[in-house]
Each structure stands twice: as structure tokens, then as C-alpha cells.
Amino acid sequence: MTEDNIMEAQQTEENLSEILQIRRDKLKKLQDEGRDPFAITKFKFNAYSTDIKNNYETMENQTVSLAGRIMSKRDMGRAFFCDLQDSKGRIQLYITIGDLGESCYSDFKKWDIGDIIGVEGIVFRTRRGEISVHVKSVTLLTKSLQPLPEKFHGLTNQELRYRQRYVDLIVNPEVKRNFEIRSKFIKHIRDYLDSRGYIEVETPVLNTISGGANARPFVTHHNALNLTMYMRIATELHLKRLIVGGMDRVYEIGRIFRNEGMSTKHNPEFTSVELYQAYADYHDMMDLFEELLSSAAKEILGTYELEWQGYNINLTPGWPRITMAEAVKQHTGVDFMSINTDEEALEAAKSLNIELPKEKTWGNLLYECFDQLVESKLIQPTFILDHPVEVSPLAKKSQKDPRLTERFELFICRSEMGNAFSELNDPVDQKERFRRQVELRAAGDEEAGMMDEDFINALEYGMPPTGGLGIGIDRVVMMLTNSDSIRDVILFPTMKPLED
């Protein structure tokens, strides 16, 4: 930082300190006079800014009351124009000394941008044609002690916007659209599944075993039981216990916690929906997933076509469904289905110059070829089917080839949107796969699963053929809002603490 920059920063800090003190002095004066705005407990209002604007013909000359935040003030001498922002939008207020009286008008002049007020007035249109409210009375409801970001530059620092989402929402109200769409999508999921006979349930967030996915868990401690516990990395194993118990269609929308790195696609704390349906397979889950996402786009956005990450995405039903091996063959020319040994697979992978996995089996090599060379090319909605057994410890083996499983992932714009299986319900096979995960964990793989004896016990009672699907809600909302970062669709994303 140059000497000029240091001096500028010091001057800015001094100016801010002065502003903060002035606002606190104003509050103290009000409190000393017995007019503490924080003592006010409620304010009755009957209209929102956008309601007035959208229904002006019927509301003209009507008396209304509104509440919101002062976003601008324009002093005209014996009158003020003021922009009031409420939860739905903004509207102009017209305030005169004649209507309020000298004392109240004088008080209003001392109020600051950011203060929250309640007003009552008459709806009218100015000579310039702007729909406004001619204020007859005004009340200070909350004194803002922090100044809002400067008008023309606003809150543009992206990291600060994530850290102080409350300020971001005030000065960048368009940000609210992302979270309105998020809310609508979650509601759409519930409506869609409820209408098809699914039951919404809740399963534990704290578990004695980490399972249901390959991911590093957050570890905590239960003091009373002196017990190590893990925050859930998936809801899968508990939901499938309910299928065993006879609840044929269940789902859960909830927070998932994975102790992994952060990126534009990953936050350690995220939201998923997992659903399970007895007597169904992964083809049924594909049909459901396609209909769920396409209908959500149509209902929320009014179209199957949207833009994301610079691409025009078409969600019209009828998405391609190809196997992982077919996708690798299409994009690299290597046909893994004609390869029968791990040694041959290794030579084929080396010819493609990929980074080789630790476990150099046919399945792991196929998966790495797809992950490193194909996934980045999948822009339009595409189902990738039949993943290798090695990377699918909870999926049923394919009847066509025991090296593969009945599993799919949906990719849109290079991003995985969801994951589904024909669920493994053979307790003997499941226990062997758990044992393999335990071996990998002992060898240092912190993302490998643990042995879940109780889940094996549940499977031994008998789980019917079942289809299961997990969807990353944040990732889908990114698509629906054309957002580049997962932090744009999580109100309070995980952030590294600021250094002192």
C-alpha cells in the first residue's frame, strides 16, 4: 500500500468514526428527551410500495400507511422528497412543513439515510408522473447507527457482501430475487413429491457413524455420553431404514455437512433433498428427476430455456441418457467396454494422459477418464448411467455387467446436479462393500465410509427393490438464478474469519 493510499484509508476511517459518533449523539438526544425510537414496539401498516404502484388506478387519493427504510432525501427547503424502501420495493414520499408542522418537520430533517420510519399519507402522482405518497404523519421507528454504503458505488466488494448479507439486501435489493427463487424451488419440490404420495421426514444430524456418501465429515463430541459424533454427510442410510420399515415413499430436505474445501460449487454446509421409493429403480428416478427440474423451471421462470454460465440451457423434457463408458468413448475414442483387465485399462488411461488414481482398477480408471476428460464437456442436461462398482458402494450391481452399478448422475453446464441408484439391498454384498471402505479409510482415505452394522441389520430384515435420488438444491438454484457461485444462493455462506 502506498503512502497516499494509507493516508486515504486513515482519512476514511476518521470520517466514518465522526459519522458514527454523530448518529449516536442523535440517538442519545432522542433518548434524553424521552423519545427513544427503540422503545416503540409495533407499527400498523396496510400497504406495500409495489402494491401502490401496481394498483394506482384504484388507490389514487386513498390514505395508506407504510413502513420502511429511508434510502434517500432531497431537501427542497420547505419540502422534502424521500425514497422509502420496504420489503417489496421503493416508493417516493413527499413531505412538507405545512403537513407535519415545524417541530415534526425539523425532527425529520435530522433523521438519516438508513433510519426506519412509519408514515401515513395520500397516494398521488407528481407533476413529473411519479407515483408517490403525500405524507401527513411520520414516526421514527428505528435509528440506524451505521451509515449505508455510498449511493453510487454501493456495496460492491463481493466478499463483504457475503459477510454482511443484511447490508447487501438493503443496498442491492435485486439480490433478494435469488432467495425468492430458492424458496419457490423448495416449495415446488415439496408440492411435487407430496402430490405423488411421498412423506417428508426428519433424520438425525448427529451420528455415531459417518456414512451415506464418500466425504470427510465434521467431528464433534457429546460430553454427557463422552462420545465422538459426526455431523451427517448424507441422509441416505436413515431414509433407507424407513423403507425397510414399510414407509414406501420418503424424502428429506435438510442441511448436509462435509469437511472439504470451498469453491464456487462447494460450501461445507449445503442443502439437499434425498428421496426413496420402494419397488422402483434408477430409471424411475431419472423420469422423476427430469420432470421435477423441467416443471420447476416452467413454473418458476415460465420457460424451459434459461441462461447459465454463458450458455443457453434447454430443459425441455427428453434429456440424453448415456452410459459412462459410452460418454468416454464418444469424447476420447477409448472403449472401456472392450477392455477386460486392469492392466489393459491402465494402458488405455495412460494413453489419454490423465492423472492416475491410487487404486488402478478398471472401474477407477474408467471413472477418472470420465471425470478428467468428459465431465467438462457436458453442457446440456445429460444423464450419465452405469458407474463403476468401486465408486458406488451403495448402488445395486448392473445385471448386464457386474463391474458396473445401476447408478446415474445428471450433469448440466459441467456441474453434477444429482445422484441416484437402484439401491443395493443385498446385506451380504453391502457388508463386503463397507469392509472395502473401511480398508480404504485405514489406508488414509478420510472420505471413505465406515462400517454401519445397524444398517446391515436393517437390510437383513429385508428392503424391497428401491430407487433413490439425491439432489443438490443449491446447485439447482444456481442454475435457475444464473449464478456463478454457490455463495450467491446461500444467505450466509461459510467464510474465513477476518484477521485482526
Task: Give an account of the 3D structure.
The chain is of the alpha+beta class and about 500 residues long. It has two domains: about 10-150, Nucleic acid-binding proteins (OB fold (Dihydrolipoamide Acetyltransferase, E2P), Beta Barrel); about 175-320 and about 380-490, Bira Bifunctional Protein, Domain 2 (BirA Bifunctional Protein, domain 2, 2-Layer Sandwich). About 35% of the residues lie in helices and about 25% in strands. It has 16 helices and 18 strands. It has helices at about 5-30, 50-55, 55-60, 95-100, 100-110, 160-165, 165-170, 175-195, 235-245, 280-300, 325-330, 340-350, 360-375, 425-440, 455-460, 475-480, and strands at about 65-75, 80-85, 90-95, 115-125, 130-140, 200, 205, 220, 225-230, 250-255, 270-280, 305-310, 310-315, 320-325, 380-385, 405-410, 415-420, 465-470. It has an eight-stranded mixed β-sheet, sandwiched between helices. It has a five-stranded mixed beta barrel with strand order 1-2-3-5-4. The protein has a three-stranded antiparallel β-sheet with strand order 7-9-8, with no helix packed on it. A hairpin with a 2-residue loop joins strand 12 and strand 13 (about 310-315). Helix 8 (about 175-195) crosses helix 10, helix 11 (about 325-330) crosses helix 13 (about 360-375) and helix 14 (about 425-440) runs antiparallel to helix 15. The longest helix has 30 residues, at about 5-30. The radius of gyration is 29 Å and the shape is elongated.
